Each structure stands twice: as C-alpha cells, then as structure tokens.
Amino acid sequence: MQDNAAVDTSSRFSTKYIADNEKFLGWAFLLPAVLYILLLVGVPFVLAIAFSLADVTVGDTTLNFVGLQNFARIMQTPEFWQSLRNTFGFAITAQIITIILANILAVLLSSDFRGKWFALVLIMLPWSTPIALGAIGWLWLLDSKFSPIDWVLRYFSLLGGEGALLGVPKNLYYLGKAQLAQASIIMVYVWRMLPLSAVILLAGLTSIPQDLLDQAEVDGSSFWRTLFQIKLPLILPIMIIAILFSFIYTVGDMAIVFILTRGGPVYYTHVLPTWAYIKGIEGGALAEGAAIALFIFPVLLAAAILILRYSRRTEVT
Amino acid sequence: MFRLKQGIRRFFFVVALAFFCFFSAAPFVWMTITVFKQDKDLYRSGNNPFIFNEPPTLDHLRLLFNETNYTIFLRNSLFIGVLVVIITLVFALPAAYSLARLTGRWGERAGIGIFLVYLVPPTLLFIPLSRIVVSLGLNNTLWALVLIYPTISIPFSTWLLMGFFKSIPKDLEEAAMMDGYSRFGAIMRVVLPLSLSGVIAVIVFTFTLTLHEFIYALAFVSSSAQRTISVGVPTELIRGDVFFWQSLMAAAAIVAIPVGIIYVFFLDRLVAGFTMGAVKG
Description:
The structure holds two protein chains of two kinds.
Chain A: H1 2-52, H2 69-75, H3 78-109, H4 116-128, H5 131-141, H6 148-155, H7 178-206, H8 210-218, H9 223-252, H10 255-260, H11 272-282, H12 286-294, H13 297-316
Chain B: H1 2-35, H2 39-42, H3 59-67, H4 70-102, H5 105-117, H6 122-135, H7 143-148, H8 150-166, H9 170-178, H10 183-194, H11 196-212, H12 215-220, H13 229-236, E1 238-239, E2 242-243, H14 245-264, H15 267-275
Antiparallel strand pairs in B: 1-2
Helix pairs in contact in B: 1-14, 3-14, 4-5, 4-8, 4-11, 5-8, 8-11, 8-15, 9-10
C-alpha cells in the first residue's frame, strides 16, 4: 500500500517536472521563428502604414507625417483607378474561369489512366515553373509579329486578308490593344492558377468516403447526379479554400503583368502591385508606392479570415 | 448500347485531358521548338512555326552559356536557394515541433498567426523592406534575398511540418524517452527520421520558392552579377528592344522543365500545406 503511494507521488512529481520543462522548451523552440517573422514581416508592415502616411522619398527618408495626403494624391490619378479596377477585375474573372476549369480537370484526374504521371507533370508545369520564366514563354507565344497563334489563324484564313473573320491585318497584337491585352493577362492568370486549384480539388474528391459513392451507385444515381448532388456539395468548403488561395496569389502577383505588358498599352493593364513598383521603386516615391500597395490589404485580410473559417469547417466534418 | 456510351465517354475524357495538357504545356512546347531554330527560320512570318524549315542549331544555347550572365544567375539562384533552405530548416523545424507538441492554447494562436503570415504577399511589404535592406547595407547584394526569403518560407514550412509532427504518435517519443533519451535525443532519433519525407518536401518547396520569387529580387537587387534566374532572365537577356528569343527560351526551359518534374513527386505535400491537413489523402 505504502509502496504504491510512493510510486504515485514520484510519477506525479516527474510529470510535473516534464510539464515545466516542456513549457520552457516549447517557447524556446518557437521564439526564434516568431522573432524572425516579427522583425522582417511585422516591422515592415508597420513601416508600410507609416510610409503611406508620411512624405518619404528615396532622397529623403525622414518620416514627416502628412496624414492622408498620399492617398488623396494617388486617387487623383487615372492610373490608380485603372490599376484598382484591373487588380480586382483580373482576379475575380480569372477565379471564375479557373474554378470551372479546375473542377473539370479534377474530375478527369480523379480516374486512373495510363500515363497519368506524365499528364500531371504537364498540367503542373504552370505552377511549378518560376512565373517570370512562364510569363516569358507567353510573351513570345503572344508576340506581335511572330505569334504562332496568329500563324494558325492565318493558315485557316481566319485572320489577315480580305473578309477574314478576325480582321484584315496580319496580326492580332495580343498585348498591344487594351482589351485584348487585359484578356491575355487574365488567360495567363488562369493558366498559372489552374494546376493548384485542380490538385486541391482533386484531394477533396479523393477524400470522399468510397461507401458513400457505392451507396449512390446502388441507388442508381447517374454520373452527373452523383457529381452535382454528392461530390460537389461535399467538396464545397475545399473549393472555397482553393478559390481564396488562388485569389490571394493573383492579387499579390506582379510578375505576369510586369513581364507581359509593363502595364501598357498606356496604363490599361496596370495592377496595384506593378503601379506601386513603378511609383515607389522606379519613381522613388516610397510613400505613394506604399499607399498604393496597401489597397490590397483589406481584401487579403478578408480572404485570410474566410480561409481560416472554412478550413475549420472542413476539419469538423 | 452500353459499349457505345462508354466509348463516347472515353472519347470526351481523352479530348478534355488533351486540351488541359496542351493548355498547360503550350508555352513550354513553343519554348523548346524555338531554342533550336535559326534566325532566318524563326523571323519569317510566312514559315510554319511548328516545324524546322532550316536545320536545327545549338548556336543559341552556346550564346546563352558563353556570352550572357546566365551561368552567374544560375549560380546565384543555387547559392540563395541552399542558404535559405538551411535557414528555413533551422527556424521552422523547432517551431513546428513546438506547435505540434508543446505549447497549449497560446501555441494554437501562434500557429494561426504563422499561417496568416504566409498569406501576406511580398507586394505589400517590398517598399518598406527595400528601405530596411538599404539601412542594413545589403542593397544590391544577394544577401538581402538570403535574409528576406525565409520570411516567406518559414511560415509555409512550419505549417507543413507541424502537420507532419502531429501525425507521429506521441507514444513513440515517450517510449524513446523512457529508454533514456532526452527529449532532444528523442526528436533526433525518432521524430526526424519518421518525418523525413516532410523535411524533404520542405526543402523542395523552399528551394522552388526562392527560384520563383520575383518582386523582392527585382526591387532589392539591381546589379547584374547579383541577380537571380527569375529576374536576371527577363531583365538582362532582353537588350533594349532586341529580344534574343531562342536564348531566352532556352534560359527559361532549362530551369522550368526539371523543376516541373521534381515538383510532381511532392504534390501530396503541397496540397496538405494548402488545405492544412483538412483533407486526408
């Protein structure tokens, strides 16, 4: 009896000791990473806000607060409004197209077939390639003079020549005309985000319990009915996560526009990141650049909160 | 009747899949064809662009490696990548272990915080960071990128590794500690070997991340000899209005295609990182 009690206290004592130790160890392990992030993400973020409210330039980096003057000034330029419209217009349009295509692609990839590995390599290329290099590929594919797409169109007499459907000139100038350039950029965004969305949806599809699908088959549910009434509702939370991630990437990206058009023709394809870069880094107006970039923040915050909420929900189910 | 229906479905399946493969791979196919074309073949708009109207040539590859800074960009990217991977592991491994095992409610909050950081795009921070880099005396050197890239890779890696560590049964570690290992010893001998595939995934993603990154590399580094692949190729290999398309395409394809192949091996881990383990594969 006495022996037992002795064992009990000693084990209680040792767990307590480990618990104290664990707490210390836990913080000691976590702290370096947290500090790194605080210093190099937290501080710059505060600085971004400070810059946007001050009159800093590359030449004079002392912070003199000027209130909302920077915001007032950038809002007077048509470039800013065009960038704002484009940022969200491009992102939303690209997301709608991406999620439709990604659903189709995920359904295709959920079946087994020969050479699936190779198909995956090809399909993932837009996401796995450095985007700057992918964008260069598109720049050449959409070249104003030597675009092979134009050549194919000419070959089928759809372009160049009297009565051709797409016009008499020999080229379409994909990146040279405002609307066509905007459409081209949206297409490259879709191209870039499609693989990520598709594999996230694929993971959702494959996580649906097999007995549920078997039951549906026994009940005589058709392919389409199973897809629309069982599979899609079940993967809806994951689909929303895929959309939000893709949205965040699209809103934050500057490489695609920067390489394809540099915002041109005129300023019709500028997005907030490219406009902030041109103003803030190339033009040296740090304050205005920071203010421009900050406009994407509220939307990102909203997207992040939604992601957290939906990922919680998927964990519960 | 059944046969026919299956045949039709199969036909549509193949057509749809071919469409997606084509859409994704088109720029790379076009790159690869372009690399080997002679100027007089490439720059004649009447020529069929998909075939070689003149014999293929390796001249542009030679130009790329001998007369441009391409090999320097490659070396810079490799150097930055390796250093960032090391820094990331040093910070992310303990942090992820701590979040998975040790800290309680506050740990959970810190975990969410780290996750939120990984949603912050470089676009938001590059202007103030460019000043920080200048004040640290790192402007125009690749050390600026070595310092800043872990701010993107540590959150993602911590998040990914945390999921991995959580999936290892606690009993295994406790058994090792019973056997006389310290906690640190248990981590080294039990936890790390079991999560090796996660560590490899983190290495691959961190490295590709440093290859991909564009904004910071463009904003912080302006001297040619310090540039990375992502920024060096589009800014340096285009001289004014003169595009050396074949060499440019070679520069892109040489990096893109191998990375693309390696990447596919780690798809599951990638997905886990984005869905936060909500989906169990």
